[in-house]
Amino acid sequence: MSDALGDRRKETRKKLMAFTPVYNVPHHRLLGYLHDLTMQGAMVVSTRPDQIDRQETLLIEFPDELTNQLISQMTFQARVARCVPDEEDPHSYLLGFEFVALTPENTQAIRELLERYHFRHLSDT
User: What is the pLDDT of residue 79?
Assistant: First the structure.
C-alpha cells in the first residue's frame, strides 16, 4: 500500500525521545502517545483507530525534562491524515495528524523542540 503522506513529506520526520501523552480536547480523553513530530504534523501511537479526514483538537503534554520549561503543553487543530495498524504492536494504530493551524507560539516551540531533541529514522540516513 502506498503511503501518500510519506510521498508528499518534504522534511525529515523527527522522533521525540520522550513519553509524551496526546489528548483529545474537550473531553481530555487520552488518544495515545507521541511517536514523532515535524513542523507539519505528528504521529501518535493509539490503541484505537480514528477516521481519516476527521478534524480534532489535540493537546500534547510535554514532560518537564523534555521541554526544560520551554512549553509544558500545546493545543492545536489537526486533521487525521493516516490511520494504519502498528506493525510492531498488533493492538495499536499509528495515527498521522496534519496540523491545520498553529499559533506562532506553537510553531516556535515545535521548532525549538526539534532542534534540541531529535534523531533521524535509520532509513533516512
Answer: 98
